[in-house]
Design a protein that fits this description.
The protein is mainly β and 358 residues long. The chain is 9% helix and 48% strand.
């Protein structure tokens, strides 16, 4: 009996030790070893707040996406001791790095995953303002207002190639071995440029709407949104095999998760400055729209200007960002089923995009 009791005690001890070892493995990430001056959760998210043109007031907000608790100051200046710059346009996560594209300052920051800048790359003058980016292998591809898509080596942060596509390109995606980039021309163009990633030498084109802006791929479907001839924000589906574009409605911001496209349409009457915002979910496989998907949203959201939507791929939760263009933005958090979970303020104006890490 004594031997059996001792044997069970040893087994219990081993089980406890194994449990502590497992927890230790889960807690290997250490924010302080990344050079952070701010205590951070492993489940962290970063918002880029665009700021205003020529104001040098772009900022970054950190929050714990399990609690929505935010660091109340501009994270970038805390981590790096300097202002971020002018117009934060895009943020992209790739492994152990984040890339922030600064349009007005004509630069790209390569950061680690706590927002400490490792490199500040200046964009060559001929490329002009960088806009949006996408990762493929060892390269970051960036649309630039000079009329190019630039191929940037992620390790050296140098331009290794460029393809001219048309004036004032905007959003860019990678799909099925090709890059798709909208050509806005600031209202003078209506095309999507297509570049083969292997050759990266020229572009072919599809016509969509006047002044196209956003482009996104969802479960094998490609959608394009723009300002349109009358600035009524049309959006629709582009068949990349046939080139046919089918307009589906109006939206000014969107984000995707699995087979759903989450849409916001903020229409402002600039004579009265009154805004009307509607939210909906579109199933890309069935072609059906659910106007009642977002539930129990605060009343003020219906009269606020939505500036961006982001989705946490880990949970499916949706974050709708609003602006009044003069004060810190608001973030409205919805669960994956569309139920309202809460809201919080950012640390800057015009919140554009959120990236989530775990």
């Amino acid at each position: 009996m004594k031997f059996r009791s001792l044997f069970l005690a040893v087994l219990s001890g081993l089980a406890i030790t194994a449990g502590f070892t497992s927890c230790s493995d889960d807690d290997d990430w250490d924010w302080s070893k990344e050079g952070s001056k701010v205590e951070m959760s492993e489940n962290r998210a970063f918002i880029i707040n665009e700021g205003s043109m020529n104001k040098n007031n772009a900022t970054m907000t950190y929050f714990d996406w399990t609690t929505d608790q935010t660091y109340k100051n501009d994270l970038f200046i805390t981590q790096n001791g300097t202002l971020m710059g002018d117009v934060a346009q895009d943020i992209i996560v790739d492994g152990k790095n984040m890339y922030v594209i600064m349009s007005g300052s004509k630069c790209i920051y390569k950061m680690n995953t706590v927002g400490v800048a490792e490199t500040r790359m200046s964009i060559p003058n001929e490329l002009s303002d960088p806009r949006y980016g996408v990762i493929d292998g060892n390269y970051l591809y960036v649309s630039c207002y000079g009329g190019y898509v630039a191929k940037i080596n992620k390790k050296t942060m140098t331009v290794e190639g460029q393809v001219e596509i048309g004036k004032n390109p905007e959003y860019i995606i990678k799909y099925n071995g090709k890059l798709y980039c909208t050509c806005s021309g600031w209202g003078a163009d209506k095309r999507v440029a297509v570049i083969d990633l292997k050759s990266f030498d020229k572009a072919t084109y599809f016509d969509v709407m006047d002044n196209p802006d956003r482009i996104i791929e969802v479960d094998g479907h490609v959608f394009v949104q723009g300002y349109g001839a009358y600035y009524d924000y049309p959006w629709g589906e582009l068949n990349v095999k046939t080139g046919e574009f089918k307009e589906l409605g109006n939206c000014s911001s969107w984000a995707a998760y699995k087979n759903n496209l989450y849409l916001a349409y903020s229409a402002t009457d600039w004579s009265t400055y009154e805004t009307n915002t509607t939210l909906s979910a579109y199933n890309v496989n069935t072609g059906s729209t659910n106007n009642a998907f977002f539930k129990n949203a605060p009343a003020e959201l219906a009269t606020s200007s939505v500036y961006g939507i982001s989705v946490n791929d880990e949970t499916g939760d949706i974050y709708v960002m609003t602006t009044d263009f003069v004060s810190n933005g608001q973030v409205y958090h919805f669960k994956s089923d569309g139920s309202f979970a809460g809201k919080f303020a950012t640390t800057g104006i015009n919140p554009r995009k959120i990236v989530f890490l775990d």
